[in-house]
Amino acid sequence: MKLLEVKDLSVSIHGTKILNSVSFNVNKSEIYGIVGESGSGKSMTALSLMGLLPSGSQSTGSASLSDTDLLKLSEEKMCTYRGNAIGMIFQEPMTALNPVQTIGKQVAETLIIHGQAKKKEALKIAREKLNRVGLFEEQFPLDKYPHELSGGQRQRVAIAMAIAMRPNLLIADEPTTALDVTTQSQILDLLKSLVEQENMALILITHDLAVISGLADNVAVMQTGKIVEEGKTNKIFKEMKHPYTKQLFSASSHVPERSTKAEEIPLLELKHVIRKYKSPRENIFKAPQTFTAVNDVSFVLRKGENLGLVGESGCGKSTLTRAILGLDELQSGEIFLEGHHVNAGKKLDSSLRRKMQVVFQDPFGSFNPRHKVGRLISEPFYLIEDRPTGNLLKDAIKQALIDVGLNAEDSEKYIHEFSGGQRQRIAIARALIIKPSLIVLDEAVSALDVSIRAQVLDLLAELSNKFELSYLFISHDLSVVRNITDRVMVMKAGSIVESGDTQKVFENPTHPYTKELIAATPRLPENLTA
Amino acid sequence: MTNFPRTLIFGGILFSIFLLGALVSFIWTPADVEILQITARFKLPSTAHWFGTDHFGRDIFSMIMVGARTSIAVAVVAVGIGIALGVPLGLWAAANHGHWLDDLIMRGNDLVFAFPSLIIAILITAVFGPSAFNAIIAIGIFNIPVFARISRGGALSIWTLDYILSARVAGKRAFRISAEHILPNIANLLIVQGTIQFSLGILAEAALSYVGLGVQPPTPSWGRMLADSQTMISIAPHLAFFPGFAIILTVLGLNLMGDGLRDILDPRIRRTQR
Amino acid sequence: MLQFALTRFISLSLSLIAASVVIFTVIEIIPGDPASFMLGINAQPDTIAALREQLGLDGSLMSRYINWISGMLVGDFGISYTYKVPVSELVLARVWISLPLAIYALAISTLIAFPVGLIAAAKRGKSIDITIMGTTQLGIAIPNFWFAMILVLIFSINLRWFSAGGFPGWEEGFLLSIKSLTLPAVALALPQASILARIMRSSILDTLDQDYVRTARAKGLSQRQAIWRHALKNALIPVLTIIGMQFSFLMAGAIIIENVFFLPGLGRLIFQGITQRDLIVVESVVMLLVFAVIIVTFIVDLTYAAVDPRLRKR
Asked: Do B169 and A357 touch (CB under 8 A)?
């Protein structure tokens, strides 16, 4: 039973074509997936259906919801459809709710606006809806404020608001991208149960193929504003007619080739490291409490090894990273690099400094926008006693850029002239330039599109082969870690709960938390990977 | 000059007129402002006296030119004080965020904010007597927390970025990071705020001169011209109009320049029209 | 909430103490010997000595400071040197002009700025917005005392709707007194209203960009409903702080404006105090003004917490 029929939907914004003849159908009570990388137009498609495109947009084509063309509706009429016949939830739950209104009021508002109920009655119904999404009265009374809720909980509130009027269609635009793996799986389960029980259709937009494969009945693959392939999920996965679909799949399950073997020499060693810090005072009468972010962590990273560290947000991995890099003091424990003590806070010995470098997550905040690339990547030379100058420096910069697959002339450009993937390459060049033994990769590929990610992982593997580099690979993304590490450690609430060979840990996890994490991670069907 | 916003150009021209007048006044004015010609008083604007004459027969146009000197000089130095002392203070506070030093500097800021420049001027002149110097100090002191707060705010948002972490991994300390990474990236904020404080300085100097706390006679100042014109406003309103317009147009010019500068220096942030 | 109020109150007290130290230092320490300063160069040694005794200048700095503070706490601000009456009497008479004037101006300014800013934001880019932006741009540039003079010229001298100055006194009637404060309040309010309107507009535009407004639209609210029910309250929060800061400028402005309208307020008192070197008067009035500003900041902070639930936790 067709619910939504989109025919030749094309959208331009200020003359630039964003969507090009997009056509697809969504049936009642089905889950329809739209998958693609950034810039593919998937969010724009959702916004056109909702009539929420930015100003200056022109659309042609039709989008018929049960025989009414949404695109031809007046703004006034469209308001009666939004939140009523169609609901939508967005990517960033942390900012999706009004911070100065209670959650009860915000859910009730959907009902009041559409004339379903008056204030008191609406609040009663709001309570039911919040229960339906898993937020029960005891912990989540109606007068709670958004800032008292976690990201996952806020997303549940957003879902409650969107389904309050029992719409026929719910659009979810990257609803779990900003959430932890375990929270993601809970939210996806919630959405699935809503589809089954409320007879609602769901358009699920995501960049994550594994999520789609686990949930969607039908899927459309989008690239630069067009649908390149569309149909039943299983069929698409088996056949993969379009080259882009193939590319997307192979990138998602990419395993870079590595030839380095781990030697038995310890490179980085942590012994009973404890890092605490004072949390801000609750009130002026209580003393400030101490929070133990890293609780007795010990491990060894061997020369030539790729060691992974996985954990969800708040587990302490960022604090641990800073301690390893010598940026924060330890309350107890020791860190050794090639046998030498890493003394945080005090002057880190420059001979030590050159052995260890870092690549961060955010390609957009990683660089000073006012400096040229040459200056940016040579920053690690500061404080190295025998740092190169003049021509030697120029050569070092040139070589580092070539090693990461860029051009020597790029040293004269500014960072904003480069794409996200290129910026990560530059970040790697910066880490590489002083020829370290260890590179800490802190969520280094998490913000990249899947195809770019595969390229960068290949680059990292190639560099480790070439320069005998070891990596400490920190991530919340289990599927990435699985494909590129030799050994992995799982971190929770400041402690390492399990560690061992990557394959063994993933196939036979022993700790309950590891089991939980692995169970929650969506996986691509294995027999279909390239 | 192709892509400069209209506000910048228009404001720039407006302000430059007065700046030019101030500079030219050092070598030439249509008439000598120090000579009193009682016989020629209250003349309306004419070809001989473009803006007319005041109650002492002085040529108002010349007085406006010389007055421009005072207004601009006081405002410039006051902004200079604010930046020279306020920016390092703000950067220092941001580098010590979470530490009691940061809190102390912020408290100090709040304290100065409780004393509007007028009050500071009153305190200073009560003890030292009125003068242009005291006006500069009074306005300058108030500028310090303004720039401290703005630099601190801008710096704090940069301290959280990854490239600062990279710099720290490279071994750079807070002072070097503030100078090499933070300052260049808040420069735009400071420039825009600088034009705003400049225009506020002009208004503040006019107010201080109006109540007699600024530059003293015989040096002409727009504020005092207004004070003098007050009692005679019904018989010679042009005495009040011209200094008033001078203040308004200079301040307007600076504010427009500030808007325009904000547009070119930070286009991605200010995409909503301010 | 109580927690918050308590911390703020401590903050306020510390500020007050710090401010008093600053004022005390400038007035009583810097001139060296306040007594000879006040009496001038030609004073006789015995007159100076007598004044010194009267002012209690022979005590240590600490004891003089304590005396001053404890005096103020019970309302004793010393005896004015020029008028020979308690400063508190002088101030009390005049504060009932300066304070209402500042409040009146604040009220006018807010009442004009809020709707104007709201309309400009709602109709962004359209001609009404451009007109408002242009007018406010001009409004910011106008010195309030000049505007006051122009208002006097038009409304008092030419149209004769208002008197050109002076204050009848509250005993003569509430409305009559308000009338004489109207032109001054309007003159004061103009530049502040312009600033406030612009800030209101940009604050609303900022909130319109927020994700929760998009969520509201997705629920089915029209743009107008989204502004009213979601954007406004959030937009008001930063505007509140500005209003608090504006109060200090308004007090300062009121002091200056009194000059134009011959209002017997605190301004006249201070300026005469300066001319006549009456340090006692200057010291006390400045302290009171700063006190007023700090109190208003405190009230604004409390309102802030009342409006924004995120602040109440800490």
From this structure: yes
Give me the sheet containing A332-337, strands edge to edge.
Answer: A290-302, A266-278, A332-337, A340-341
Q: Which of A6, A436, A36, A448 is nearest to A205 (CA)?
A: A36
User: How far does Cα A512 stand from its chain's mean position?
Assistant: 24
3-state helix, strand, coil in chain B (%, to 5): 70, 0, 30
Could you tell me the two tokens for A95? 């900012």
- Which residue among A358, A368, A383 places its CB closest to the CB of B171? A383
Give the chain C residue whose CA is nearest to the CA of A279: C314
DSSP A148: G
Helix extents (H) in C167-278? 174-208, 211-219, 223-226, 232-261, 266-275
Q: What is the pLDDT of residue B245?
A: 94
Cβ count within 10 A of residue B99: 11
- Rounded Cα distance between B261 and C178, Å, is 43
pLDDT digits (tens, 9 = 90+) for C216-232: 999 999 988 998 899 88
Q: Which one-letter DSSP state was computed for residue C164?
A: S
Quick check: B163 and B194 in contact, CB under 8 A?
no
**CA gap B61, B63 in Å, rounded:** 5
Which residues in B lie closer than 8 A to residue C156 (C-beta atoms)?
none
β partners of residue B66: none
C-alpha to C-alpha distance for A156 and C84, rounded to whole angstroms = 72
pLDDT per 10-residue tile (average), chain A, 530 residues: 91 90 92 92 93 89 90 92 94 92 94 91 93 92 92 94 94 92 93 92 93 92 93 88 89 80 84 84 70 90 91 87 85 85 65 84 86 91 80 91 91 89 92 90 88 90 88 90 90 92 92 92 68
3-state secondary structure A261-306: CCCCCEEEEEEEEEEEEECCCCCCCCCCCEEEEEEEEEEEEECCCE
Structure tokens at B60: 């108002």
Q: CA-based angle C294:C297:C302, to the nearest 5?
A: 130
In the prediction, which pLDDT does B273 show? 32
Sequence-distant (6+) residues with CB within 8 A of A510 are A498
First to last CA, chain C: 8
Contact assessment for residue A427 and residue A360, using Cβ atoms and an 8 Å cutoff? yes
State residue C77's pLDDT score. 82
- Burial of A507: CB neighbours in 10 Å, binned 0-12, 13-18, 19+: exposed
Give me the interface pTM, i.e. the ipTM.
0.87
Contact A365 B161 (CB under 8 A): yes
What residues in A contact B181, CB-CB < 8 Å?
Answer: 368
Edge-to-edge strand ranges of the sheet holding A226-232: A86-89, A169-173, A201-206, A31-35, A218-223, A226-232
SS3 A17: strand
**What pairing do the DSSP bridges indicate for beta strands A218-223 and A16-27?**
unpaired
The chain A residue lying nearest C1, using CA atoms, is A283
Reading the block at residue A12, the tokens are 């331009």
pTM of the complete model: 0.87
Burial class (CB in 10 A: 0-12, 13-18, 19+), A29: middle
User: Does the beta carbon of C276 lie under 8 angstroms from any beta carbon of chain B?
Assistant: no
Q: What is the DSSP string of B36-94?
A: --GGGTTPPS-SSSTT-B-TT--BHHHHHHHHHHHHHHHHHHHHHHHHHHHHHHHHHHH
Which chain A residue lies closest to B162 (C-alpha atoms)? A366
| A-chain residues near B166 (CB < 8 A) | 358, 360, 366, 379, 430
Q: Cβ separation of A379 and B171 shorter than 8 Å?
A: no
Chain B neighbors (3+ CB pairs < 8 Å): A, C
In the structure encoding, which two tokens stand for residue B246, read together? 């001078």
| Binary contact (C137, B252; C-beta < 8 A) | yes
